[in-house]
Design brief:
211 residues, Immunoglobulin-like, 36% strand
Length: 211
Amino acid sequence: MKMRATIVLAALALSGCASIFSGSTQDVAIRATPGAKFVVTDTYGRKVASGETEGTVNLVRGAGYFSPHAYKVKFSKPGYQNKTLAVNPSLNGWYFGNLLLGGFVGMVIVDPLTGAMYNLHPREIEAELEPTGEDIAALEREAAIVEKTRTYPVSRNDYTARQKLAELRCTPLGRPAVEGLNTGKEKFLFECKEGQQVQLQCLSNLGCRAG
């Protein structure tokens, strides 16, 4: 038993307490507003991890000899304000174990080189993104249009007309107003998500055109 204890103490003295007990990397848990994407960058602005909504990333503690890494986690989602949170370094308590065990090598060489002398905080990050005012107004407008057009009749040319809208860069909201329903000549008026209105004229067996 004494022999084993002596071997363990010798290993600690010749390596580094923090390197043995903590390692050179650390897991950080990330959670965000559902659908939000996140990107993690290091001290030098390099992308080191990314994901969506939630995940766990494994981050390197050290950036070089006696130099820790600091990270930024950037969150984004369409219709929401971007947010950036920091993951900052601090000294690892295990690093000072080298003083108790006479681990000169661990204190001045091993732990500083591996980066194990540092901890990263916080270990868990939560980001709740706030919707932008403009997008709230846009969503309210779209909902009002969809509700207004809910009772509009559906034409047999509706599918053909919607196919034409893709060429005109219009994402239709709800159903279109139709003149001349189920006749040989129909006129459609679409409200587009992009903010404009598009009018189409559809002739039986001849397709639809703008105008």
